[in-house]
Design brief:
Largest sheet: 7 strands, mixed
Strand content: 15-25%
Number of strands: 25
Shape: globular
Strand order of the largest sheet: 15-18-19-14-13-21-22
Distance between the termini: 70 Å
Amino acid sequence: MTTSHMNPNYINGEWVAAERVLTDVNPSDLDDVVGRYAEASAAQVGEAVAAARAAFPAWSRRGIQERADILDRIGTEILARKEELGRLLSREEGKTLPEGIGEAARAGYIFRFFAGEVLRARGELLDSVRPGIGVEISREALGVVGLVTPWNFPLAIPAWKIAPALAYGNCVVFKPSELAPACAWAIAEILARAGLPAGVFNLVMGGGATGEALTHSPGLDAISFTGSQATGARVAAIAAERGVRLQLEMGGKNPLVVLDDADLAVAVNCAVQGAYYSTGQRCTASSRLIVTEGIHDRFVAALVERLGQLKVDDALAPGTDIGPVVDARQLEKDLDYIRIAQEEGARLAFGGTRLERAKRGHYLAPTLFAETTAAMRINREEVFGPVASVIRAKDYDEALALANDTPFGLCAGIVTTALKLAADFKRNAEVGMVMVNLPTAGVDYHVPFGGRKGSSHGPREQGAFAREFYTTVKTAYVLA
């Protein structure tokens, strides 16, 4: 299936074409063109920021019921179309169809959650230490927010940035990944019909040049970015130079600790779901499996057996457990890390090869390395594919030390039946999120998301904590 129609950008309430075009290809079927999308020029990015700046004064003072109703309409439509949008997501990004539909539903619920948050905006009223004076503490919108999102959650991550930004009265310029423009365009099309005034929400699609134009724009008050550490570092430097508020989410090298007393079936399930589902293309993936000696060999054998049962195929095909890698460049990166791990002495326990299927696609066997060390690159750097490695630990204390031995700090998991050790791990794991007897991948939309160290910078995303980034605090003193 191919299409010659070009889907335009959305700027100041109008659909705007561009000279350059992004071609979006299905990673499960390289002969299937999902669509063609306009790549915004630097000038168009500037127009979008200017439109958002002009719309901000009126939007930030808009009645809270109207803002709530708009967000509710958006969420309700996404939920009503979750199967259609989920299928689009799976076709574009390579996530299995059940995962795609689940993510679409999550995006809808996020918008509906923040529709409620609009009405829950609150402040404080205090007495001053000086008699006869009152103190009011309130929150106000920041202004114009640039949102830069990745390809791996092309509906959920835009939702959890756009929804709170609009809920708290900000205007938005949204730049999605060039690998997932179809999902971004679908969201924009829904927002364009939801009753937002012109300029409040703007979509500028494109690659690195479009992102550079947005982050360098003098009209931004804040930037929220999710992506790689390398790009995040560049965004941070730009924001620091210009004094722009910044929020960064930049991945992880997440450990799953398996202790001797663990239920083996639970441990294997946590490892498979955390490391390999969504083709391992999640910042919360369990890429380091830290296993104590008493269960190590049984765990590796059981995990290898389970990996042999997984179906790798077209993301839209019934029964597929793992879809393709998102594109050729990411596939080559995965294969490079597999080669590096073998050169460093890791034992390839399963997978490690490209796979051929009925349709041409970027298929990679789920890959497991055993007998690895913490110093190996496979355990230091984020691969972002269906690749995990096992590190042997002599006991819980060593396992905890290994878990924390990383420049990242997004999330960590532990599988154990000992409440004492689970409690200790929750307290001492140097991460933003801890999972006990659960996969590291899988989070709720109404609670904070984020990490420590090199994984995150700035206030947490999601839930009521989103207000910490998308609002600024004002203190007013009033003489009675």
